[in-house]
């Protein structure tokens, strides 16, 4: 029956309760419902203003409703939306050229998310190994506390059991080692390994930067065994560390790099970047996605890349990082009973909670939100900060004041 859509459907009142009524309960969102945002400022249904230091989990790195991106998207929306992969389009070709020129890569594959980018990377590694060495070379090595996506394959590769419980049987031939443990890497990466996947900076696992020596040894071991080295830069890439991609700051070059999140500043897009040799493994029909590299997403991503990949912009990220770390370290000094120490890279920083607050990072997040500061957690023992890369010194100071008020309230209630 083709009934005309009732106009009230698009304008009917909805609240946070509506989520509990009609959405599959895979999330537990905050009580407030955001309705409008600009830059790092956000307003909820009640008109309350917040300072957003989450950027949508390191996504809106150029701020909400960035006017340059809005203009680019609007122009493309009035030009060409979608074609399907039987055709290519100009925006995606320009984006592929720009990404390969800016990185080690020769080829790009576009999809819709970080999980899809990692899925493509892992499938590429398996197929390459089977083609070149035989099916015995199929084992994948990842790190404990890692996060690589929510498909059954990528969630199995991620090293957090809480995300795989109940979904068994899981894909086989996947092993996990301790992050930054060189000896564990040497023991695990042998001739039957087809891929090693690692986040240069672990995000969901607690905001833990990789040691250069560890990442370099992974490179050495992959060279020795013929395994493919995959860097998952979905969260730490696109300027977040003060380099376009984190690998460039480490001086360790992977065979495959995955990107998403900030690549589209909130418009869904993912990318897998790789070398000419590896790209040959995936021939016509061996992999694909309906929406990957559509003109809308590619246009936004190309504009994002053009803004971020400038020396002055990246230098400012490093400058803002110093300011943010100093603010957070000051809070650790003044509230040692709640906050312990700071770790991270660039504008992706985590604060490990003190022993008395183990398991209570969510409580700190909620207290900050009550003061008008939006921030993240990374597990139960770390609060995480990922402000837009355009954050000002004044906004960092404001975040510090709001967080200080939140900590004062927690101390008083303890």
Automatic annotation (TrEMBL):
Cofactor note: Binds 1 pyridoxal phosphate per subunit.
The EC number(s) this enzyme carries: 2.6.1.11
GO terms under cellular component: cytoplasm
Localization (cell): Cytoplasm
UniProt keyword terms in alphabetical order: Amino-acid biosynthesis, Aminotransferase, Arginine biosynthesis, Cytoplasm, Pyridoxal phosphate, Transferase
Main location (coarse class): cytoplasm
Catalysis performed (reactions): N(2)-acetyl-L-ornithine + 2-oxoglutarate = N-acetyl-L-glutamate 5-semialdehyde + L-glutamate
SUPFAM superfamilies the record matches: PLP-dependent transferases (SSF53383)
Gene Ontology MF terms: diaminobutyrate-2-oxoglutarate transaminase activity; identical protein binding; N2-acetyl-L-ornithine:2-oxoglutarate 5-aminotransferase activity; pyridoxal phosphate binding
Cofactor(s) listed in the protein's UniProt record: pyridoxal 5'-phosphate
Top-level taxonomic group: Bacteria
Residues with the N6-(pyridoxal phosphate)lysine modification: 261
Gene3D superfamilies: Aspartate Aminotransferase, domain 1, Type I PLP-dependent aspartate aminotransferase-like (Major domain)
Binding site for N(2)-acetyl-L-ornithine: 150, 289
Pfam family, one: Aminotran_3
Residues holding pyridoxal 5'-phosphate: 114-115, 147, 232-235, 290
Pathway: Amine and polyamine biosynthesis; ectoine biosynthesis; L-ectoine from L-aspartate 4-semialdehyde: step 1/3; Amino-acid biosynthesis; L-arginine biosynthesis; N(2)-acetyl-L-ornithine from L-glutamate: step 4/4
HAMAP family, sorted: ArgD_aminotrans_3
NCBIfam families from the UniProt entry: arg_catab_astC, argD, PRK01278.1, PRK05093.1
PANTHER family referenced in this protein's UniProt entry, alphabetically: AMINOTRANSFERASE CLASS III (PTHR11986), SUCCINYLORNITHINE TRANSAMINASE (PTHR11986:SF113)
Family: Belongs to the class-III pyridoxal-phosphate-dependent aminotransferase family. ArgD subfamily.
Protein name per its UniProtKB record: Acetylornithine aminotransferase
Lineage: Bacteria, Pseudomonadati, Pseudomonadota, Betaproteobacteria, Burkholderiales
């Amino acid at each position: 029956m083709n009934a005309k859509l009732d106009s009230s459907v698009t304008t009917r009142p909805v609240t946070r309760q509506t989520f509990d009524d009609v959405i599959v309960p895979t999330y537990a969102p905050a009580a407030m419902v955001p309705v409008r945002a600009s830059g790092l400022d956000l307003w909820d249904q009640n008109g309350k203003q917040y300072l957003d230091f989450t950027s949508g989990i390191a996504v809106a790195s150029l701020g909400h409703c960035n006017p340059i991106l809005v203009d680019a998207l609007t122009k493309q929306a009035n030009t060409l939306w979608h074609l399907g992969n039987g055709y290519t389009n100009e925006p995606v070709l320009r984006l592929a050229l720009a990404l390969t020129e800016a990185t080690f890569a020769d080829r790009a594959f576009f999809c819709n998310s970080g999980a899809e980018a990692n899925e493509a990377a892992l499938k590429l590694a398996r197929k390459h190994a089977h083609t070149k060495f035989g099916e015995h070379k199929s084992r994948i090595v990842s790190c404990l506390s890692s996060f690589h996506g929510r498909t059954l394959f990528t969630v199995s590769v991620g090293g957090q059991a809480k995300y795989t419980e109940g979904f068994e049987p899981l894909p086989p031939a996947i092993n996990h080692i301790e992050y930054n443990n060189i000896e564990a890497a040497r023991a695990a990466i042998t001739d039957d390994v087809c891929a090693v996947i690692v986040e240069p900076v672990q995000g969901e696992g607690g905001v833990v930067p990789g040691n250069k020596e560890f990442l370099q040894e992974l490179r050495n071991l992959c060279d020795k065994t013929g395994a493919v080295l995959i860097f998952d830069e979905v969260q730490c890439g696109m300027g977040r560390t003060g380099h376009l991609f984190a690998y460039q700051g480490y001086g360790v070059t992977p065979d495959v790099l995955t990107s998403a999140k900030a690549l589209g500043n909130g418009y869904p897009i993912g990318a897998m970047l790789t070398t000419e040799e590896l790209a040959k493994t995936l021939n016509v029909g061996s992999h694909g996605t309906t929406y990957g590299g559509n003109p809308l997403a590619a246009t936004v991503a190309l504009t994002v890349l053009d803004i971020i990949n400038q020396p002055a912009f990246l230098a400012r990220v490093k400058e803002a990082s110093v300011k943010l770390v100093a603010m957070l370290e000051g809070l650790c000094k003044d509230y040692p009973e709640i906050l312990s120490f700071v770790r991270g890279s660039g504008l992706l920083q985590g604060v490990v909670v003190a022993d008395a607050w183990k398991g209570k990072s969510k409580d700190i997040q909620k207290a900050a939100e009550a003061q008008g500061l939006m921030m993240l957690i990374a597990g139960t023992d770390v609060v995480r900060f990922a402000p837009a890369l355009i954050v000002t010194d004044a906004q960092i100071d404001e975040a510090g004041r709001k967080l200080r008020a939140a900590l004062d309230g927690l101390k008083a209630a303890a």
